[in-house]
Amino acid sequence: MERLKPYKDRCFPTGAVNLYKYVTNNRDKIDYAEYKKKGYYVGSGAIESGNTVVVQRRCKQAGMKWNKKNAQYMLMLRAKAESGLWASRVQPLITPVAAA
Asked: Stretch 55-83: mean pLDDT, rounded?
């Protein structure tokens, strides 16, 4: 916690997370040794990889321009596809149901 003290009283832009406050409030939930033992990811590598796969490969292609709302919709769909949930979560919403 000593290393985070410089952030204790710092002003942050609206919507930004105060790291000191976050860690202080969630200290009982941060047990990296236990998470590693259970096989959970505790580094940022998986998140960075997800960012590359989901965001960059879809939204940063040549000539593409997105507004915030449409980009969010596209990224939700892309995340479903990359996580293997397309068939179970999205496909039923876009495939017409045959009349009985």
From this structure: 88
Residue 16 DSSP class: -
pLDDT at residue 69, as a whole number: 92
Q: What pLDDT score was predicted for residue 100?
A: 56
Count CB-CB contacts under 10 A for residue 65: 7
CB within 8 Å of 42: residues ≥ 6 apart? 32, 35, 36
CB neighbours of residue 82 within 10 Å: 14
Residues in contact with 68: Cβ distance below 8 Å, sequence separation at least 6, in sequence order = none
Q: Looking at this protein, which amino acid is placed at residue 37? A: K
Report CA-CA distances (Å) from 52 to 2, 37, 66, 84: 33, 27, 17, 17
Contacts of range 46-53, beta carbons closer than 8 Å, 24 or more positions apart: 50/82, 53/82
What is residue 38's predicted lDDT score, i.e. its pLDDT? 93
How confident is the prediction for the chain on average, in pLDDT? Answer: 84
